[in-house]
Amino acid sequence: MTATGNAIGPSEALGTLFTPAGKRNPYPLYEALRELGPVVRLGPKLVFVQGHDACAAALREPGLLVTDASVHRKTGMIEHSSWQCFTKIMMFSNGTDHDRLRNFSRWAYHPQSITGLRPMIEDKAKELAERLVTCDSATVDLVEGFSSRLTLAVTGELYGIPVADQLALRSTITDTTTAFEPIFDLAELADGDAGMDVLVGYMTDLVASRRREPRDDLATRMVHEADAAGTVTNDELVAGLVMFLIAGVQSPSDLIAGAIRMALRKPAQFQATDAEAFVTEVLRFDAPSQVLTRVAERDLTLDGVPVKAGARVMLLLAAANRDPSRYDEPDVFRPHRTPNRPLSFGLGMHYCLGAQLSRVQAEIGLTTLTRHFPHMSLEDEPHYRDQLVQRGLARLTVRLRPRDTRHQAML
Ligand code: HEM
Fold it and tell me: Model's pTM, two decimal places?
């Protein structure tokens, strides 16, 4: 046992974090790591940041860059389809390239535009909940049957992607997110690469089709902007659309499924809280994006710890969200915390463009489903995907109605 009562020491915790067991439940490992301080230097080339204030400062530190094409060229990853595409998007660009790409599409996710999407999102959520009402089986997987369908339906509506295509692309989208995990062998990129080839092909065709036949959707508006302004190349446009598809579907689906699970685990808290505060606490308690990576552009210090130029800096957002110096009893799920401002959407110049849309989808998804199924209950232990950076439930099996209702109905 360690000083904090952890059965595991900090070095063992670091070694375990990216193993399947660590990915399943990283929280005791974050707690063990906390003994090492808010910023941990593991030699000259690797630094972990886990304290809340240190993480927030690191996100705003201009000397810490995202891993762009120059970094992925050195590792050889840029030869792979997944990173060929990701290095063309704002999330993995720095400086003027980042600003150019962000300015090109930021209008699409402006909070005012998102407010106008509420009725559409409510309709989609209601449609999916009603589909479950007519479902015969006693238990359903809500990742398959609700959370991913909702975010696919919303993104599909925005970009004009037909329902059949949405469902056909669903597992491909999840596959591409495996490229965000720490890669120890380039062969581990195989699934992400295969998925990326499909998505790039799909979006290339979509762009060509919108050029031929414009429609009233975001894809058409982005094609029009790209052609009129000439500030992004066709490859960057396609990569941007791929990113909006992946980001629009995967993390929000993970958030919705996680929120439903917490509502079922903590029904009294769910009933006593408004959906916005509840979703915020889900974001703090179990962030869909747990880790971000930065590279130091120059020698700098983080919370007094020297960081050498070229060092990789891992920002453990999910550990920062449970920093006891920021949150009382951080391992307790408590939706009434004030202030409650988790770092789950990042901070600073790369702050998530889809934060507002994700929150709105999660709030609507959660309230719509629980209204349709007030007696829903968890049927299974949580089953997470084997991913840490992009954490989320692989399945969420629930019983939609009380055990005896259907039986009584048959009598
Ligand atoms: C629960 C859902 C989501 C979570 C937890 C999440 C998380 C994040 C985080 C942590 C970042 C910061 C990355 C960094 O600093 O390196 C980020 C950036 C970004 N997110 Fe999200 N995201 C979510 C949903 C979305 C959605 C729905 C979209 C759009 C469809 C989106 C688009 C973006 C974009 C474009 C960036 C990059 C911004 C930039 O580099 O300037 N995200 N997201």
Answer: 0.95
